UniProtKB/TrEMBL annotation, chain A:
One of its GO terms (cellular component) is cytoplasm. It catalyses: sarcosine + (6S)-5,6,7,8-tetrahydrofolate + O2 = (6R)-5,10-methylene-5,6,7,8-tetrahydrofolate + glycine + H2O2; sarcosine + O2 + H2O = formaldehyde + glycine + H2O2. InterPro entries: FAD-dep_OxRdtase, FAD/NAD-bd_sf, Rhodanese-like_dom, SoxB. It comes from Puniceibacterium sediminis. Its cofactor is FMN; FAD. This is Sarcosine oxidase subunit beta. Its main location: cytoplasm.
From TrEMBL, chain B:
Residues 523-606 form the SoxA A3 domain. This is Sarcosine oxidase subunit alpha. Residues 172-424 form the FAD/NAD(P)-binding domain. The keyword Oxidoreductase applies. It comes from Puniceibacterium sediminis. Residues 912-997 form the Aminomethyltransferase C-terminal domain. Belongs to the GcvT family. SUPFAM superfamilies: Aminomethyltransferase beta-barrel domain (SSF101790), FAD/NAD(P)-binding domain (SSF51905), Folate-binding domain (SSF103025). One of its GO terms (molecular function) is sarcosine oxidase activity. One of its GO terms (biological process) is tetrahydrofolate metabolic process.
Length: 415, 1005
């Protein structure tokens, strides 16, 4: 792999960029792999990357029915934070956040991780107590957060209005090293690194069946033919139920559309990420200048990946109360992504009833921030045959045992 | 130089002059101008700077597809960035400024990027700024952020001076687009009797047909348009709205319309924008077509415009872009521009036609006028930086060897037309590639479908791929007729509008000019003018493996500008498919997303701003509280008194006073916000037995019982007192925040699981005011009012009675959330205030003291009563809270029973409710955790408990708290360390959670 650098750009500029090689190889499927990963989104690619990097397993194929990074990795609001309440969540999200810190260097691909700080606004007394509780928990979990007062909120985010008529800003849970990254670049950077390790990323290759024998996975059938494998990982947010069905088991998830939108680009006005859970909205400003706004999930299950309007209305309405200047901006584009929601709003990283088959799903509305940690933990589980400490609490058995990891506790809404 | 012509301008009225300012300079325009046409009339061709390279930019189009001419419009509370000059109607006093430059439009430091462009290809930022790590956040990114963005941010402290509103409507047939196709479709549908709504984004009807000319039914097109609009206006079943854009098409015929009411006349009273929320049975998309640019070097220089736009400016506004305009084309339509310019006395030195054989009748017409036509030729390069000075001509089939240089000051380009398929596509309509016309058109066999699987969108006219006027009108007639039929009406057989056919030669797809352009030319050939994406960028994306159209888009930012690729997408994906050696349809398009053009956030929010953002719910006593020093606390949508602050008193002091008054003598609480749900019916008892953990069916009439409600996962979700009103009627009290949620929970179970049970639920929370009379003197006050026997014998604890108290029709519930002797009195809401004032006045002799939520919390915490939302958080089961006594052992089932049998729920190491007292008497912080020794496998500190409620108790004059602790009830007296946020810990003793009157003697007197 030719390394990227300012020097490389200068060298290529002199020959009109004719020397750049493909970021990832175009691969055709081999007959058999040690590990087949279904889904070349952020989580699938990160899983492959850490399988190679941490465990030396490089005979790996990543199968993608569309284009890599084209699911929720390419349609989220790019927020990265780890200020979670429950221990297992804080552990995996903080692992992910810390990996984001050095991802550009690790992958030699600038993913533009920008620790600009994340603030979760407290707008009721109940929320204040909830976030104080999270701050106490974070202090014991090794997650750097603080509960800050309204003046500090205004200092960090001058465009905010503190004394809105309905929900005044009473404070915020602030994580200074939270922030954003360029979502597509995360997928592309991992893909490039995986390809460089010799792994095959096979796009436009849809899995149509999972083949097994005596309770043990044998391979998959795809639109490009049969591919055998020793181990199979299903990492297909938005389609997990479909793939699980092929593998012969059911998942406790519902798939719904999550709504998001961006404004037209303006000059820098906001240098932090704001989440306002009471009024269901979150916002940051991209490097391009657009206000990136996330809303809620539709109240009905579907797979369409389309935008709907009523959540956009609620979200924009609430954010205008919090950021009055927003009223004079325009909505440029709205879209939806399909998220898998579990009963406790926490993910599933688990062995499955089918031997050799593993699943990673259920990240709900918060999957992007988890990508590196999720990949790390899933790779560890695949390599060792059983979940390690980061993943062990997220097994499917927790629903049978009632051992939920409920994050809606503090915030009252999904994350 | 661009200027106002001596004559012309069908949309303008030159007798009405208007003044406006651009970049501080006073300018003049005329009524009917757009800001763009007025600027051009003043010789102001350059209107902005591009996004990445800060290149000089003039308008390239004349309508909503414009990517370049964006301005900061207005001032103060009416400021708006990124406003398109081409669709901004001029008004007297308009103030605008160009964007994205420093220090000025003419001289922009950022323009250095254009000289560095060779070092800034697509995706350069993914490949550099990687080392050293901290520099990205602190140096590179801030620099990129400042040079990116476009318009200025509106002032943070200024509130939008305009108002907005939403409007809801239904219609049989919705026609989007008021060009000739939209008018004809609407007329056809309306004649069937269907309700028709016709929306047009511009201020004028007829689209671009009046500019293009032609005759319909033997009269000039413009006259036909006028007559048709008149006919439609005269029909009672038709509604027409101009300045109203179809913004988005959603599931099941749901459409957003965006009406700009006062943008063209800001002093007009009333809302600025109106968002139409439309349910249509059938939608006709008559959204027209957009001309495509051609990709040649220097096609972004100010003065290079779409051929149709140059024609628009001349015909509609009487404005010319230049004196010598070179026309370059791959189709016949651009000849109209040459003929039009010639007719207005403007020079057209040459028409460069990429087709070897040239055009049809229009070419002959142009040649007859003496205009030179070059066939099989192309533009190698446009000369000039801030404006066009010349074009270099070459063979289209060659590599760009210059044959001739022609001085000129404007270039009219036409790469063919693309139907506007956005609204067809929003809700899933698919496209097919039309080889002959080289455009995507709606694939009618794959239309958006509704709940019944039937299509609900019908494209019409050029939006459906019929570019010729005759075909457009014929297709629109069919569309109008089909829409009416599908909406259940019988279309009338009418005659088609008569249009003479026009002979035009076939267009030639030209995706790069010249065909073999070298890399130097390709890196000057723009695809996306705003985002500075060039042919070479797309080719680089393909070279590097970003082969999917979505990858190429995201890698290069093609089509991600404020025009969302209206001009660039087709050229971009044709370039990509050529680079990949694949057919265009197999590469496909990116997804079309709403809105069609950007719509104001203000319009999305509508009326619900400021005080009416969300309704504040008020109890009947709200005004009284307001007048008596209330300190409010928002609780859900309610405002509840936190406390009543008297003169010379802090909030904390007021709370302490209120607690003491209730404990020592008499307190009054407005409990009206507590949820009240009536559950009635033959199966009501059975239903409540399933809903609550307790047995409710056996509750005798006249009695009350404290009940717990769990969700199907076994977690405690609400609590409250249930009173049996009659044989088949129960009244369930819920928490304040829980009323709507619990009502919905009941309905969900009744409607989805037990739909055959005869039960009816009604939320009557707001029908009653409820006042708690609390304290040792509570009974005396009620007796003073008189009318009911409230003695211990007649109305003991946990019973209720109906009667007349002091003349008020009341229900009195003898229940207590404070541990004191307490009556909760419910009265019809309209009499709530009168009863409250009466109780307050008559209770004066016992110092009747109104108290708020904080005193309520302290009173209950001193008694160890749990509070939903404090002791519970969605992960707590009743067994954790020592509430096992409230779980019926006799019942076969209740919601949550099975879940509570799961292994983790019966785990003896679940944390249990206890009381907590700091050793030093201080108040524990909210949410503090009890630390344990060691760390887990993830390096996190072990914990063994947490604080759920914590207060200063004025009664005990010390901090008291409740919490959940590992094996807590077995560890009474043990001291744990609880966290503080400053990193230290507080030694805290485990005690009984009932801090006061553990036998409950006070409430039973």
């Amino acid at each position: 792999m030719k390394r990227y650098s300012a020097f490389a750009i200068a060298r290529e500029a002199l020959r009109h960029h004719t020397g750049w090689e493909r970021a990832w190889r175009k691969a055709t499927p081999k007959k058999k792999y040690d590990v087949v990963i279904v889904g070349a989104g952020g989580h699938g690619l990160a899983t492959a990357y850490y399988l190679g990097k941490n465990h030396g397993i490089k005979n790996v194929a990543i199968l993608e029915k569309g284009w890599l990074g084209g699911g929720n990795t390419g349609r989220n609001t790019t927020i990265i934070r780890s200020n979670y309440l429950q221990d297992p969540s804080a552990a995996i999200y903080e692992k992910a956040r810390s990996l984001y810190e050095t991802m550009s260097q690790d992958l030699n691909y600038n993913v533009m991780f920008s620790p600009r700080g994340v603030m979760m606004l407290a707008q009721t007394h109940h929320e204040v107590r909830g976030y104080e509780r999270t701050a106490h928990a974070n202090s014991l979990q090794g997650v750097e957060t603080q509960f800050i007062g309204p003046e500090k909120v205004k200092e960090l985010c001058p465009i905010i209005r503190l004394d809105g008529p309905r929900y005044p800003v009473l404070g915020a849970l602030y994580q200074p090293r939270g922030g954003t990254a360029r979502h597509d670049a995360v997928a592309w950077g991992y893909a490039r690194a995986c390809s460089d390790m010799g792994m095959d990323i096979i796009q436009q290759c849809e899995v149509t069946a999972v083949r097994s024998d005596a309770g043990k996975v044998r391979g998959v059938t795809t639109t490009m033919g049969d591919i055998d494998c020793d181990k199979l990982a299903i990492v297909v947010a938005g389609n997990s139920g479909v793939l699980a069905d092929m593998a012969g088991f059911r998942l406790p998830i519902e798939s719904v559309a999550l709504q998001a939108l961006v404004s037209e680009p303006i000059k820098p006005a906001m240098d932090v990420v704001i989440m306002a859970n009471t009024v269901h909205g979150y916002m940051s400003q991209s490097d391009k200048g657009e206000m990136v706004i996330g809303g809620g999930t539709d109240g009905y299950n579907n797979y369409t990946q389309r935008g709907s309007f009523h959540h956009v209305e609620e979200t924009v309405r609430a954010l205008i109360e919090t950021f009055p200047m927003l009223s004079r901006l325009k909505m440029l584009r709205q879209w939806g992504g399909i998220v898998d929601i579990t009963g406790d709003r926490s993910p599933i990283i688990s062995k499955t009833p089918l031997g050799g088959c593993f699943i990673n799903c259920g990240w709900g509305t918060g999957g992007f921030k988890a990508i590196p940690g999720s990949g790390w933990a899933t790779a560890e589980m695949i390599a060792q045959g059983a979940p390690g400490p980061l993943a062990s609490a997220f097994g499917l058995e927790r629903f049978r045992e009632g051992r939920f990891i409920d994050e809606s506790v503090a915030a009252g809404v999904a994350h | 130089m661009s200027t106002r012509l001596a004559t012309g301008g069908r949309l303008t009225d030159r007798t009405k002059q208007m003044k406006f300012r651009f970049n501080g300079q006073q300018m003049r325009g005329v009524e009917g101008d757009t800001l763009a046409s007025a600027l051009l009339a003043n010789g102001q061709l350059m209107m902005g700077r591009s996004f990445k390279y800060h290149r000089p930019r003039g308008p390239v189009a004349s309508g909503s597809e414009e990517p370049n001419a964006l301005v900061n419009l207005g001032q103060g509370a009416r400021f708006e960035p990124n406003q398109r000059a081409t669709t901004t109607e001029l008004f007297d006093g308009l103030v605008a400024a160009s964007q994205n430059h420093w220090p000025s439009l003419q001289f922009d430091v950022g323009a250095i990027n254009t000289h560095l462009s060779r070092f800034l290809p697509a995706g350069f930022y993914y490949k550099m700024f990687i080392h050293p790590r901290p520099l990205w956040k602190h140096v590179y990114e801030p620099f990129i952020r400042r040079s990116a963005g476009l318009g200025a941010a509106p002032d943070a402290e200024t509130v939008d001076a305009d108002t907005y509103e939403h409007f809801y409507t239904f219609t049989d047939v919705l026609v989007l687009g008021g060009g000739v196709a939209g008018l004809q479709a609407a007329l056809t549908a309306a004649r069937s009797g269907a309700q028709v709504l016709l929306l047009e984004q511009n201020a004028h009807w007829g689209g671009r047909t009046p500019v293009d000319g032609g005759e319909i039914d033997g009269k000039p097109a413009e006259q036909w348009i006028k007559d048709t609009v008149q006919a439609l206006e005269a029909m009672g079943n038709v509604t027409l709205r101009s300045r109203t854009m179809g913004a988005g098409v959603y599931d099941h015929g749901y459409v957003l319309g965006y009406e700009r009411l006062t943008d063209h006349a800001p002093e007009t009273p009333g809302p600025r924008h109106r968002l139409w929320r439309i349910r249509a049975q059938q939608i006709v998309t008559a959204t027209g077509a957009i001309e495509r640019p051609l990709s040649f070097a220097g096609n972004d220089v100010p003065g290079v415009l779409l051929a149709s736009a140059i024609r628009d400016y001349v015909v509609n506004y009487g404005v010319s872009i230049g004196d010598r305009t070179v026309v370059v084309t791959n189709n016949d339509d651009a000849y109209r521009t040459a003929i039009c310019l010639h007719g207005h006395g403007l020079n057209v030195p040459v028409i460069i036609d990429a087709r070897m054989q040239g055009g049809g009748a229009l070419m002959a017409q142009a040649e007859a006028l003496g205009i030179r036509v070059l066939k099989g030729k192309a533009i190698a390069k446009v000369k000039g930086t801030r404006k066009v000075t010349a074009v270099e001509i070459c063979d289209q089939a060659g590599e760009g060897a210059v044959l001739e240089t022609i001085p000129c000051d404007a270039v009219a380009m036409s790469g063919g037309w693309s139907p506007v398929v956005h609204l067809w596509s929003h809700c899933g309509g698919k496209l097919s590639w039309d080889e002959g016309n080289a455009f995507f058109r709606p694939d009618l066999s794959r239309a958006p479908t509704s709940h019944d699987g039937a299509p609900f969108v019908i494209p019409a006219g050029s939006a459906n791929g019929y570019i010729q006027l005759k075909d457009t009108l014929a297709d629109a007639t069919t569309a109008g007729s089909s829409a009416a039929t599908a909406a259940g009406h019988q279309p009338k057989v009418g005659t088609l509008p008569q249009v003479a056919p026009r002979e035009e030669a076939a267009m030639l797809p030209v995706w790069l000019m010249p065909q073999g352009a070298n890399v130097k030319l390709r890196s000057k050939a723009w695809l996306d003018f705003q985002n500075d994406v060039k042919v070479s960028d797309i080719q680089l994306a393909a070279q590097e493996g970003y082969e999917s159209v979505e990858h190429a888009k995201r890698y290069t930012t093609l089509g991600m500008a404020t025009d969302q690729g209206k001009l660039s997408n087709i050229n971009g994906l044709a370039t990509l498919s050529a680079a990949l050696g694949e057919a265009i349809p197999s590469v496909g398009t990116t997804t079309f997303r709403p809105p069609y053009t950007p719509i104001s956030m203000g319009s999305i929010a509508g009326q619900a701003r400021g005080d009416i953002f969300q309704p504040v719910r008020e109890t009947p006593l709200h005004g009284w509280h307001e007048a008596h020093g209330v300190h409010w606390e928002p609780v859900g949508q309610w405002r509840r008194p936190y406390s009543f602050v008297q003169q010379d008193e802090t909030v904390e002091q007021s709370v302490n006073r209120e607690v003491k008054a209730a404990r020592d003598s008499l307190g009054l609480l407005d409990a009206s916000t507590l949820g009240k749900i009536v559950v009635k019916g033959p199966d009501a008892g059975k239903f409540l037995d399933m809903l609550y953990t307790n047995m409710m069916s056996t509750l005798p009439v006249g009695k009350c019982r404290y009940g717990l409600m769990c969700n199907e996962n076994g977690f405690l979700m609400d609590d409250g007192v249930v009173a049996r009103m009659s044989d088949d009627t129960w009244l369930c009290h819920t928490t304040t925040g829980g009323a709507e949620r619990i009502h919905a929970h009941m309905e969900e179970w009744l409607q989805t699981e037990w739909w055959d049970w005869q039960v009816y639920c009604a939320n009557v929370t707001e029908q009653y005011a409820q006042i708690a009379v609390v304290g040792p003197n509570a009974r005396k006050l009620l007796e003073k009012l008189g009318g009911m026997d409230v003695s211990r014998e007649t109305l003991p604890f946990m019973q209720w009675a109906a009667g007349t108290l002091g003349g008020f029709p009341v229900r009195i519930f003898r229940i207590s959330f404070s541990g004191e002797l307490s009556y909760e009195i419910a009265v019809p809401a309209s009499q709530g205030l009168a009863l409250w004032e009466r109780l307050h006045a008559e209770g004066a002799e016992w110092n009747a003291t109104p108290y708020g939520t904080e005193a309520l919390h302290i009173l209950r915490a001193e008694k160890g009563f749990i509070m939903i939302g404090d002791e519970t958080d969605g992960t707590v089961i009743p067994q954790d809270l020592g509430l096992g006594w409230a779980i019926s052992k006799k019942k076969a089932d209740y919601i949550g029973k099975r879940a509570q049998a799961r292994s983790h729920m019966t785990d003896p190491t679940r944390w249990q409710l206890v009381g907590l007292e700091t050793v030093d008497g201080s108040v524990l912080p909210d949410g503090a955790l009890a630390v344990a020794s060691g760390t887990n496998a993830n390096g996190q500190r072990h914990t063994q408990g947490r604080v759920t409620s914590t207060y200063h108790s004025p009664t005990l004059n010390r901090g008291i708290a409740m919490g959940l602790v590992l094996n807590g009830p077995d560890r009474m007296g043990e001291v744990l360390e609880f966290t503080k946020l400053d990193g230290t810990t507080i030694p805290t003793k485990i005690v009984n959670a009932v801090f006061l009157d553990p036998e409950g003697e006070k409430q039973n007197v």
